[in-house]
């Protein structure tokens, strides 16, 4: 069963399916599913795989015949989400709207992908599952909590996937594996049927090997386009829209990021290589300490409520990262939480007025100290460095708090041969613009593999 069916783009998968004779399409799906099952078992990145007999393709959609797999946080209609815990019999609820929309566009769901327990964790560390290795560099970390998603996409098992992002959990793993990771505006992708952690911060996001792969999946998730920022439900039109020439107005905080020297030079080279943008220039870095502190208050308070049943029933079996996120909320004064919520709107308005004034997008660092070693961010390792772990989400969590869309894209390779990504931030509803920027300027994944 050829693994050549893996490593395909969304467009390639759809073309192969469309060009196959009707009688050969079942065999194509079966072969693709078998290849996914075999490679997922090798990589330990899936918690469930689905048999070909249960896979049906709805004709005529944007993603007809496209094989995907998603974070084990979604109701599939067949199984309740595992949420990074040992699997147990649990009555499933209705299929999550996001998965249903993909299915209606003809996509296949080949499996559920590994994640940090209850989405609590910035890395692939999970005491209930086998450790996941970064397909690009086995010594490098895989970000979390959508770690299985990043491994599956970077290893070529699927071209794109859905994850969840509460404090960077789509963008961090995308950055460590050289992928495009989109955190949309809250509510852009329906969250019903998705395991919650902190509803104010939770966002369903998309990860892909390319911006076009991510854009095709994102477009299938949307209702009928009604705004100028929406993407058309046609693959050729999506690519044309992403490729359309624009006079970009860019603001940047990259030069003030305090990045490691080789990462800073890679980001600077990327900025110099942008073809004649109408550069707005440097902007002051936002007050990350304050914003992230407020984001943490919301995270702890809402996680304590969301996970209350698990804390009462299973406290001793919960992973240390889950306890560290859920337990502080039980002791937190309610006035702190109310204050944090009350500050979201004014702080978002201030951010837009300063950092994005007269600019389409703001470029920010993603992992300014580079992709860390896996040992440095694994709490059970003798080489554990809490500063390295904290650096993973420092430039991500505040955007969940502000409710702004953001996208990470690879722009180069550091001195260790690991990907360097930057983060682009836009105003609410600017997902199509973010994807277009990544489509035009991201380093192709093939170049990352050839590093």
Automatic annotation (TrEMBL):
Membrane-traversing stretches:
none
Q: Where is the Amidase domain?
A: 57-435
Domain of life where this protein originates: Bacteria
Q: State the name under which the record lists this protein.
A: Amidase
